[in-house]
């Protein structure tokens, strides 16, 4: 959602909007499927997290960037916020590295997740270079 907001604020970024909108749809389907099949306690916890992060977190960022910043400053500040969240997404799987080092086994390292995140990062980097947008790259 943040990248869609960034693309809307920047203007002229139709491809960025459509790619991230498709990602939002896929993520929503995934969360709904999880909520359908998860145990009750997990459903409640997940629903709270979704509300907290998506509604409250995005709402605060939306209001802050909409009213506190104007023009190019809005694009720059929103770009850095998006970069911060993207770094968190791509770095999160590295938290398992400690366990891999302790056990000297890659049993706990999800290969497909590592591969797809690496490929995704490369593609976004190349796309960012192509459109000359340092925040996307």
TrEMBL record:
The chain crosses the membrane at residues 15-37, 49-69, 75-96, 108-127. It is a multi-pass membrane protein. Its main location: membrane. It holds the Pfam family MtN3_slv. The lineage of its organism: Eukaryota, Viridiplantae, Streptophyta, Embryophyta, Tracheophyta. Belongs to the SWEET sugar transporter family. It is found in: Cell membrane. Keywords: Cell membrane, Membrane, Repeat, Sugar transport, Transmembrane, Transmembrane helix, Transport. InterPro entries: SWEET, SWEET_rpt. Gene3D superfamilies: 1.20.1280.290. PANTHER family: BIDIRECTIONAL SUGAR TRANSPORTER SWEET11, RAG1-ACTIVATING PROTEIN 1. GO terms for cellular component: plasma membrane. This is Bidirectional sugar transporter SWEET. GO terms for molecular function: sugar transmembrane transporter activity. It comes from Triticum turgidum subsp. durum.
